[in-house]
Amino acid sequence: MKSARSFMAVVCTILMVLILGACSNSSSNEKTSIKLAEVTRSIFYAPLYVALENGYFEEEGLEVDLTTTWGGDKTMTSLVSDSSDIALVGSETSIYVHSQGANDPVINFAQLTQKDGTFLVSKKAHDNFSWNDLKESNFLGQRKGGMPQMVGEYVLKQNGIDPHQDLNLSQNIDFGNIPSAFQTGDYEYVQLFEPTASKFEKQGVGHVLASFGEASGKVPYTVFMAKQSFLEDNSETAEKFTRAIYKAQQWVESHKGKEVAEIIQPYFEDIELDIIDESVERYKNSEAYALDPVLDEEEWNNLKDIMDEAGELPEDVKHETLVNTEIAENIINE
């Protein structure tokens, strides 16, 4: 009888250990869900897709639900209405929201791209291109008030060209229709993102002449941002998210374009692998991808100068008002 009681005691002990172990494993396997809104689907955002495909978010215990919201206004609406937790969009949008008197400001906390991602494309080849070649040409620009157009105008002015006086400038074409409008219209030059620029070169439709990103310098072109309340209430989650992005940034920097292309191809199934490869290499060569998530004050001030030059800066917002560098700095210093 005594041995039976001893046996039952051992069995109960084993069962308790198994139950506690199962509970512990269940708890450790629980993931924090993040609703992430990206402003568009772009090879320009390659490190984000690398973070997803290489499992860096999963390693941090995060489950990221990615939605493409197609436009800065829609992306910010998603964020401020709590339809998303984090948004990937241009930093200028946080300034626009702040100028409207937001009680819960949108804070930039992790930078993804550090330069403009557009390229100057011409219908004709140029052996010795000069920015002066653009004068009096038919130029198809980007949407007024958006970062591509503001950077484009900034670069032109830096090279002695007044875009509204020296060019026949068109800004009335929707973003999605710009490539086809350039192909079919009488435009001589256009400002394009990848992979369209590389596609046009391959098809003989256009020739890439210059990078607006290289010409303009570093700006917080695309940044992960969240409402201040979210960052305060979910500081650990924000750190985990930023850590995953930093891992991806380092991976992209240390791997060739083709390797990056192979990882992110599921996000661009209608684009040939060699075009993705060429696009990634072009962005790497122009240093468009940020090497770490820190958005420094110099970049922020450069952004404001570009907006001010374009007449689109609603107010002078200080770096510390809308930028949190502490999260990113802690991650890279680990």
From TrEMBL:
Residues spanning the signal sequence: 1-22
UniProt KW Ion transport keyword: no
Keyword annotations from UniProtKB, A to Z: Signal
Coiled coil: none
GO cellular component, one term: periplasmic space
Protein's cellular compartments: Periplasm
Recorded superkingdom: Bacteria
Similarity section: Belongs to the bacterial solute-binding protein SsuA/TauA family.
Name by which UniProt lists this protein: NitT/TauT family transport system substrate-binding protein
Protein source organism: Salinibacillus kushneri
